[in-house]
């Protein structure tokens, strides 16, 4: 059966560890591992804007000896309504994997359901699992481990980053604390799934509307935009409720003194995070952005090895 990576819990704790371990190896030996030599092609499709994901997949596929085929969905028939499954059937006879950034999770599930090659979620409205692999790799680099550490995420508890921190963080054995307004809480089904995973890894998950409580004693503090792609018309109403969750120097002072700060980027200084924090000594966001490259190369390699051997 073809393995896909559509959400964070598609990797078991052991498998996530394998991918993160390989990512660290690849970071130290960028061109020494070329499973796509041939070269094979990987399709990377964007229904939404991207800087980091587009660059890191294009560079990473080339590093692995392959050819990236970057497709702007608006210029393809997919963007004109050709069925997702038909697109998958055309692609999977020619490419080694399909990477897709789209809106609804059901869309990428449909692509995976029709594809014989691995499908990778490059962000949906519900999850951003490639980002969390890079974030966990960054935590390992700076803290030496993930298990047992407290990760506080402040901001939109109902967005893709919050959901992926819940599932991916629980898989990594972290104590994930979400701090968000009550009207922007995580999806209860995803929270419940994270609780279930945490029970097997020694981690935990929690939600609170008290930003100070969420960040208290945290080893890792993370945030994200208050207005995700596709929510632009809600920009005004998405301002006031989130102000108490802004990652300011005052809020960061409640975390562990050695806490590191993550942000998937793009960041809006003065909104969800102060410039003094994003550009300050606790911020590791540029390592985090670089680690998209290494983590995604590891993920692609891992999935391809699984599918070739099955
Ligand atoms: N963090 C992230 O996914 O960035 P892009 O939207 O620029 O790809
Ligand atoms: N939550 C953000 C993440 C951007 C990388 C969005 O979906 O726009």
UniProtKB/TrEMBL annotation:
Gene Ontology molecular function terms on file: amino acid binding; ornithine carbamoyltransferase activity
Biological-process GO terms, alphabetical: citrulline biosynthetic process; L-arginine biosynthetic process via ornithine
Subcellular location: Cytoplasm
InterPro entries attached to this UniProt entry: Asp/Orn_carbamoyltranf_P-bd, Asp/Orn_carbamoylTrfase, Asp/Orn_carbamoylTrfase_sf, Asp_carbamoyltransf_Asp/Orn-bd, Orn/put_carbamltrans, OTCase_ArgI
Keyword Magnesium listed: no
Signal sequence interval, chain numbering: none
Domain of life assignment: Bacteria
Protein name: Ornithine carbamoyltransferase
């Amino acid at each position: 059966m073809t393995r896909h990576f559509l959400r964070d819990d598609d990797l078991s704790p052991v498998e996530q560890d394998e991918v993160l371990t390989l990512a660290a190896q690849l970071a130290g030996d960028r061109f020494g591992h070329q499973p796509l030599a041939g070269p094979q092609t990987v399709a990377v499709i964007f229904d939404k804007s991207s800087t980091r994901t587009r660059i890191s997949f294009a560079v990473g596929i080339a590093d692995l000896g392959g050819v990236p085929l970057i497709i702007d969905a608006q210029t393809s028939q997919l963007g004109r309504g050709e069925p997702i499954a038909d697109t998958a059937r055309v692609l999977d006879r020619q490419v080694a994997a399909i990477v897709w950034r789209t809106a609804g999770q059901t869309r990428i599930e449909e692509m995976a359901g029709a594809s014989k090659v691995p499908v990778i979620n490059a962000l949906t409205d519900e999850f951003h699992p490639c980002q969390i692999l890079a974030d966990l790799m960054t935590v390992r680099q700076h803290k030496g481990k993930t298990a047992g550490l407290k990760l506080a995420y402040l901001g939109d508890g109902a967005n893709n980053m919050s959901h992926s921190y819940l599932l991916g963080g629980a898989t990594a054995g972290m104590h994930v604390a979400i701090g968000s307004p009550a009207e922007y809480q995580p999806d209860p089904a995803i929270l419940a799934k994270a609780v279930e995973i945490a029970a097997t890894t020694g981690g935990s998950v929690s939600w609170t509307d008290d930003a100070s409580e969420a960040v208290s004693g945290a080893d890792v503090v993370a945030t994200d935009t208050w207005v995700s792609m596709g929510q632009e018309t809600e920009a005004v109403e998405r301002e006031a409720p989130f102000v108490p969750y802004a990652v300011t120097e005052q809020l960061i002072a409640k975390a562990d003194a050695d806490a590191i700060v993550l942000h998937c980027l793009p960041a809006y200084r003065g909104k969800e995070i102060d410039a003094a924090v994003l550009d300050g000594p606790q911020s590791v966001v540029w390592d985090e952005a670089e680690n998209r490259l290494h983590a995604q190369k590891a993920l692609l390699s891992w999935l391809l090895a699984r599918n070739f051997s099955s």
